[in-house]
């Protein structure tokens, strides 16, 4: 029996066999999805890399900021971008 999103009908007595069929059809759909794409592949394709290794900048910026301060910010941003990319 294919999955029926309209099951169970309103105000009907509960019978186990149709519910079992619904659960079995959902289980088959989930199994089909799992064989098409693994969870790790899906995560790696759609999420950022781990950036736990990127330390905080801890920089106090003067007004106006110096070239060295701005370069430190740019370098830290580049470090973060590299960490977030999945290669």
Folded structure, characterized:
The chain contains 3 helices and no strands. The protein is mostly helical. It folds into 2 domains: 36 residues, no CATH class; 37 residues, no CATH class. The two termini are 43 Å apart.
Q: Are there runs of 5+ residues with pLDDT below 50, and where? A: none
Series of H and E elements: HHH
Query: Number of DSSP helices?
Result: 3
Distance between the termini: 43 Å
Largest beta-sheet details: none
Number of domains: 2
List how many beta strands DSSP finds: 0
Helix content percent band: 40-55%
Category by helix and strand content: mainly alpha
Q: What form results from the Cα inertia axes? A: elongated
* Arithmetic mean pLDDT: 87
* Beta content: under 5%
Work out the radius of gyration. Answer: 26 Å
Task: Give the gist of this structure.
With 87 residues, the protein is mostly helical. Helix content is 54%, strand content 0%. It has 2 domains: 1-36, no CATH class; 48-84, no CATH class.
Topology overview:
Elements: H1 16-36, H2 39-46, H3 67-84
Features:
87 residues; mainly alpha; 2 domains; elongated
């Amino acid at each position: 029996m294919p999955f029926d999103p309209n099951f169970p009908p309103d105000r009907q007595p509960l019978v186990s066999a149709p519910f079992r069929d619904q659960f079995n059809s959902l289980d088959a759909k989930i199994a089909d999805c799992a064989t098409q794409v693994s969870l790790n592949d899906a995560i790696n394709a759609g999420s950022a890399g781990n950036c736990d290794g990127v330390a905080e900048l801890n920089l106090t910026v003067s007004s106006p900021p110096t070239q060295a301060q701005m370069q430190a910010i740019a370098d830290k941003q580049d470090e973060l971008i590299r960490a977030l990319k999945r290669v």
